[in-house]
Specification:
The protein is built from 3 helices and 5 strands, in the order αβαββαββ. It is α+β, with helices and mostly antiparallel strands.
Length: about 160
C-alpha cells in the first residue's frame, strides 16, 4: 500500500538525517489506506526517498522544514502531491530538473530526479514539478494507475 511505502521512505530519510546535524525534516502524511499502485514497492520507495532527500537538501540552509505528502484516488489513478517549504525551484531550471546528470550542487550526480521520472513513467504514470503558490517551496505532482487489492504482483 502507498501509505506503507511512504512510511518506509520517511524512515529512510530520518535515518539519513542523523548524518546531517542541525537538519530536522518532518514528513506529514495524508494518505488514505488501501491505495495500491502498479509496480514494485521498492521502486516506489526509491521515488519517495529521492524526493524526500531532495527536499531535505533544499531545506538544509534553513535547518529543515516540512514535507507534506497527500494522495487521493481520482478514477482509476492516484494523484499524489509531495510539497516542501524550502526555497522552491528557480524558474530558469524548472524545465530541466528531470534531465539526467542535472544538478544545482557540484557534489551530486544529478540522477535522483531523473530516476524519479524514469520509474514513474515505467509504471505508466506522470510526474511534474512546480513551485508552491501559497508560500515558498517546491511541489511534485505524481499520477499513477491504481490497481485492485487482489493483485499479488503489485503493492
Amino acid at each position: 500500500d502507498l501509505d506503507v511505502v511512504v512510511d518506509r521512505a520517511a524512515t529512510f530519510l530520518s535515518d539519513f538525517l542523523h548524518h546531517l546535524p542541525g537538519v530536522d525534516v518532518e514528513v506529514v502524511r495524508r494518505i488514505p489506506a488501501g491505495l495500491r499502485l502498479s509496480g514494485a514497492s521498492n521502486d516506489w520507495e526509491r521515488v519517495f526517498m529521492n524526493l524526500f532527500l531532495n527536499a531535505a537538501q533544499a531545506m538544509r540552509e534553513r535547518g529543515g522544514g516540512v514535507v507534506e505528502v497527500t494522495a487521493r484516488a481520482e478514477g482509476a489513478a492516484a494523484e499524489i502531491s509531495i510539497q516542501d517549504n524550502g526555497p522552491g525551484i528557480p524558474d530558469e531550471i524548472l524545465g530541466r530538473i528531470f534531465a539526467p546528470r542535472f544538478s544545482t550542487r557540484s557534489d551530486q550526480t544529478g540522477l535522483g530526479l531523473h530516476i524519479v521520472h524514469s520509474i514513474v513513467e515505467e509504471n505508466d504514470g506522470a510526474v511534474r514539478a512546480k513551485n508552491r503558490t501559497d508560500g515558498s517551496g517546491a511541489v511534485f505532482l505524481l499520477t499513477a494507475p491504481l490497481i485492485g487489492a487482489d493483485s499479488a504482483a503489485n503493492f
